[in-house]
Amino acid sequence: MIKIAIQGEPGSFSHEAATKFATSAGDAARIVPFSLSAEVFAALSRGDVEAAVIPIENSLAGSVTEHFDLMLSHEVTIVRETLLRIRHNLIAISGAQLNQIDRVFSHPVALAQCRRFLAEHPKMESFAFYDTAGSVKQLVELRDRHAGAIASAEAASYYGAEILVAGIEDNPENFTRFFYVTRSADAQPDPAANKMSLAFTVENRVGTLVAALSELAKEGTNLTKIESRPVHGRPWEYVFYVDCQLHAAEDATRAIAALQQHCSMVKELGRYQEAVR
Question: Which of 8, 75, 119, 124 has its CA 20 to 30 A from that of 267?
Answer without folding.
Answer: 8
